[in-house]
Amino acid sequence: MRRSLVIVGAGPRATGILERLGANAAEMYGDAGLDIHLVDPYPPGGGRIWRHDQSPLLWMNSQAQDVTMFTDETVEVAGPVLPGPALHEWTGRDGRAFLGRREQSAYLRWVYEKAVAALPEGVVVHHHRRRALRVTGARDTRQEVALEGVDAPLDADLVILAQGHLDAELDHEQSDLAAYAERTGLVHLPPDFTADTDLSPLEPGAPVIVRGFGLAFVDLMVLLTEGRGGRYEGDTYHPSGREPILYVGSRRGVPYRSKIGYDWDGERPPLPRYLGPAQIDGLLARPDGYDFRRDVWPLVEKELGFAHYHRLFAAHPDRTRTAWTDFDEKYAACDPGSPELDALVASAVPDPADRLDLTALDHPLAGVRHTSYAALQDGLRAHIADDLARRHDPGHSPDLAVFLGLLSVYGQLMRLGDVGTWWHGFFSYLASGPPGPRLKQLLALSRAGVVRFLGADVQVSAGDGVFRAQSPTLPGQITEARALVEARLPQPTLARTRDPLLRALHAEGAASTAAGLLAVDPADGRVLDRAGTPHPRRFALGPHTDARGAGAFTRPRTNSPTFRQNDATARAVLDFLRTHRTTTTRGTHDAAQ
């Protein structure tokens, strides 16, 4: 009987697993036959999020030089390293360009086809353009994967769940707002992937309250302005007249920080330094567990501070008062967040603007109160303009060092599994912001009156036939609209996911974390039950698990945790297929559907 592997999902994660299966097959599997079934209603390579069929106005959020699907010599994997072109090399475009998502889709399709072509001759890939509904089967028998619209399930020796980003049912607040909108004829667009959202109910010239100021908002902004015929001339936006008026606010009240617009030069900070494998080992060894804010965050703060000051002393010594060796020795001896550390920094770095203040970064409008609507608009435009200038000025290169520190920290924290949602939001705010040109467009839209700012800690309510939004940033100001857009992605929790397979797994005993993520074995991605026992035949990788990665794609030469995960899972799969006898409790089925 031929061996069979089902991979649910056919996007970038599944493509990366296929590449690692091919890379390791010669050593671990030889020329034995294997059927690989990809189950996804969307095209292989890009999958749903990166499919070609979306607006050409939508860009990637990373520079082309920062996107690769191939391992390099920095990646610590047991399998072979097989280098390949990064996105800018494959397209022949400027590495600093932000390419369209359609170009990324073409790259991913090429990587997928290359990965399939590299598989041994006896390995055949089948794509099923359907949804997977359920996986069943005992731990010691083949699994069965039920497909939508098909009577006979797929038989599989092993199953890998790589669905990527998932839709979710509404939470209690969203359900109440949606119900109110339905009763009163309002428009309520819940958290969703903006490229998939029907925006036609948002009428030209009508006010729309938008809650969320991250990347989902940027897509919304693009589709409702240029996407409706508006155009830019330099720093001026010329409306088409078809745009709604977007009143946007969020918890922070400001957009994510701009992507940094210059390259690194000189020595990189030697990371990790204060949050590395030894510290993670110590946290994992605690018999009573750990608390993120109490035990982990101080280490994160000190690690990011080290990256910041290492760069400041190396590249801008005229803005410091002491020698780096003296500062480094004293910094190492200070407890994270201690008064001694604050005093050391104050004595060595005279300008407060050169000191790293993560709390201020995370709460940019804390304590800010405006007395007029116009002052709020001017204040937010000044904040965005200042951020753009700073993030494109190498004189502030410690910001880039902190970015590198964030990448290092994220790679270490993945070993801890679920560390809660706050960290991921903080990381995204500082490290996954929009391209600078998008923020320039935002400023132009604000000056044109198409986008209007609400402030921080925005509260939304519904009553008297309208939605209302207000913020303490402008006390007493209430904005009313008949449309509300929740500009953020759904949270990938097992309890609220619309993926029927994952919901069934959870109901049948798969473990979830405190944040509702699917719990997996960090060693190879095997799904854990509630007793912490790995399922021998089921694996899961991606944002719906507690082994989720630091972003959509991997930067070259960063020892990517995603690549390490893919390699470990692929080797575990091949080892199992090679060493375990195929058993089943039922007949086999034709796999080609």
Short description:
The chain has 593 residues and is an alpha/beta fold. It contains 16 helices and 19 strands.
Description:
InterPro entries: FAD/NAD-bd_sf, HpyO/CreE_NAD-binding, L-asp_N-monooxygenase_NS-form. Residues 533-563 are annotated as: Disordered. It comes from Streptomyces venezuelae. Residues 6-165 form the FAD-dependent urate hydroxylase HpyO/Asp monooxygenase CreE-like FAD/NAD(P)-binding domain. This protein is an alpha/beta fold and 593 residues long. It folds into 3 domains: 3-168 and 492-579, FAD/NAD(P)-binding domain (3-Layer(bba) Sandwich); 172-256 and 434-486, FAD/NAD(P)-binding domain (3-Layer(bba) Sandwich); 277-362 and 395-420, no CATH class. The chain is built from 16 helices and 19 strands. It has a 6-stranded mixed beta sheet, covered by helices on one side. Strands 8-17-9-12-13 form a 5-stranded parallel beta sheet. A 3-stranded antiparallel beta sheet has the order 4-5-6. The protein is globular, with a radius of gyration of 25 Å. The two termini are 19 Å apart. Residues 584-593 have low confidence and may be disordered.
